[in-house]
Amino acid sequence: MQLSGTRNKSFLAAAGVFLIAKFKWVLALLKWSKFGGTFITMAASLATYAVFYGWKFAVALIYLIFVHEMGHVIAARRKGITTSPAVFIPFVGAFISMKDKPRDAATEAYLAYGGPLAGLISFLPAIGLYYATEDPFWALVIYLGALINLFNLIPVSPLDGGRIVSVLSSKIWFIGLAGLFIVVYFRPSPITILILIFGVVTWWNRQREGYRAAIVAHEKYNLVRLRDSIQEWPSMNSTFELKRELQSTIAESERVIQHTRKTLIPFIHDNEKLAREKAKLDLGYSLQALELVKQWEFQPVYFYEADPQNPAPSELLVRVQRELNEKLAIVNEQLERLSTYYEAPRSVKWKVLVAYLLLAAVLSAFAVYGHELVQQFEVNM
Questions:
Q1: What is the tens place of the pLDDT at every residue in 282-293?
Q2: Which DSSP category does 234 fall into?
Q3: Is the peptide bond before 158 cis (omega within 30 degrees of 0)?
Q4: Which of 19, 51, 143, 291 is the most buried (most CB within 10 A)?
Q5: Could you tell me which of 162, 206, 200, 160 has the C-alpha nearest to residue 181?
Q6: Listed residue (242, 222, 246, 218) closest to 232, CA to CA
Q7: Over 50: is that where the pLDDT of 23 sits?
Q8: What angle (nearest 5°) sits at the alpha carbon of residue 174, between those of residues 171 and 178?
């Protein structure tokens, strides 16, 4: 018997080597295809779950997660947003990344809502299968599907719930963080701790958006001032006053930076910190302008038809103005996003709130129902 078992193992090993050698091109094709990452990571997660929980449970779990992610993909396509294929991570779940940013929080909420909604639909067939077969496995699928998607509705970013309620008020994140902290305190797990950390970072960044908007607005001020100043240079009789003004700004900016305390606490020292950041921007743009003036003074001047009253535009200044306009467009986009991203009509907020509460209630009901079914079989056993 032992010899037979050894031969069987040798046969299986040889067969495995043969298949890998013959079909390694399939793995290469999957790796480089559009959905190769999805298939490979899905297979790896499936195998990992199967080792711990068995193949049947692993297939059900992968199915539930996959449908959830496809809900996000479909919602993104309906909004014209391109996404990456889904990537699975064992004991974490799966994720997709957006190649285009949502234009506002309402659009982001729509994309986030698609996952749990599809997740709800994913386990509905298990209800019929349970009543048809009375197999406890389908009761487990109902409970697991409801629990996964209900967990995703916790109002903490980066979970779907946090991204949904952001259109209502990002202050709700704090409530979600408090609840998640209680869960982590009493029942810590790597995934909940990781979500809590990401949630705190996201909430913190949201609270600092007003401060960042003030910095971006000051950068816009410097860009416009430099661009408009360059337009006046060709008509100047002398650059002496211009250079003196720039040197004065440089000296004042350096003084502010030097006399600002090194350790500044957010919120408490925001005014002082903002003054220092503005001074850094003033210093950078003044140094750029001063260097540009020096370069421009040594540029040859050309005239249309040799007319000294009709000078041709400086190629140097034209190029710099074009670069400033391109950068200004980016800064304007950043400023608009920081200022208006979370704004939404009252009607949209009501729709999001009702849809969120309704989905949470339905998933909660199914979670309780599935849990009761699972407990019945545990008691009977």
A1: 999 999 999 999
A2: G
A3: yes
A4: 143
A5: 200
A6: 242
A7: no
A8: 160
Flag whether pLDDT at 18 surpasses 50. no
Amino acid at 42: M
Here the tokens at position 92 are: 């974490």
pLDDT category of residue 19 using cuts at 50, 70 and 90: very low
Q: How far apart are CA 68 and CA 153, in angstroms?
A: 12
Phi and psi torsions of 167, nearest 5°: -75, -20
DSSP secondary structure code for residue 306 in this structure: G
Give the model's pLDDT for residue 8: 47
| Backbone angles phi and psi of 274, in degrees to 5 | -65, -40
For residues 302 and 211, is the Cβ–Cβ distance under 8 A?
Answer: no
Nearest to 106 by CA among 360, 353, 363: 353
Tell me the DSSP string of 57-101.
Answer: HHHHHHHHHHHHHHHHHHHHHHTT--BPPPEEETTTEEE--BSS-
Assign residue 306 a region (left: φ > 0; alpha: ψ between -120 and 50; beta: otherwise): left
Label the pairing between strands 93-95 and 87-89: antiparallel
The whole-number average pLDDT for the span 292-320 is: 81
Express each pLDDT in 328-362 by its tens digit.
999 999 999 999 999 999 999 999 999 999 999 99
DSSP 8-state class, residue 93: E
Residue 101 backbone phi and psi in degrees, to 5: -80, 140
Give yes or no for a contact between 138 and 128, defined as CB atoms under 8 angstroms apart: no
3-state secondary structure of 303: strand
What's the length of the chain? 381
What gap in Å lies between CA 105 and CA 166, rounded to an integer? 6
Between the alpha carbon of residue 338 and those of residues 55, 58, 273, 298, 329, the distances in Å are 47, 42, 19, 41, 14
* Residue in the block written with tokens 């103005």: 321
Q: What are phi and psi of 311, to 5 degrees?
A: -75, 145
What angle, rounded to 10 degrees, do the helices at 136-152 and 55-78 form? Answer: 40
Instruction: Give the span between the Cα atoms of 331 and 335, in whole angstroms.
Output: 6
First-to-last CA distance in the chain? Answer: 36
What is the identity of the amino acid at 4?
Answer: S
User: Distance (Å, rounded) from C-alpha 149 to C-alpha 356?
Assistant: 12
**Which two three-digit tokens encode residue 37?**
């990452």
CA distance linking residue 372 with residue 136, whole number of Å: 11
Structure tokens at 124: 């509905």
How far, in whole angstroms, is CA 369 from its chain's centroid? 34
